[in-house]
What we know:
The protein is an alpha+beta fold. It has one domain: Roll (C8orf32 fold). The chain contains four helices and four strands. Strand 1 and strand 2 form a beta hairpin. The longest helix has 15 residues. The radius of gyration is 14 Å and the shape is globular.
Amino acid sequence: MWNLKSDERLVAWKEFRTRIGTLPFEEAVQQTAHLWSYAPFVNHYLDRQSPEDWPTPWELIDDGKFDDLAKALGMFYTLALSSHGKQHEFLLETIVDSSTAQNYNLVLIDRGKYVLNYIFDTVISNEQLSKDVSIDKVYSSEDLHLSKY
């Protein structure tokens, strides 16, 4: 998907969302984490402090530039806009791990039953997060205005 032209990438993303909508939710989450783990990486694209400037789901796919936050946002958009979206709660959290001074952009699903973007291509639960993390920002589907899509 990532090597396609912009319009082809948008079609492939729609087909992916449709396909994962037919899968059991846990498998859909795993396939989404896998897909987004291999999106092309850039050093800086989105500003964590300016969600009002973040792209819509289709702009994100069209732009084709993905820093860590954009990848988390892509995972969030992918699952929330699939047929699973209405049955589950999605949060995008930016956190800081004080033991490593690392920033993370995570997708928490169903109060942390599933956590994406903490470990490459891996789905964990919030029980597996470092105990030294503090939450910086939290964004819900409502905050990201997904209801208008």
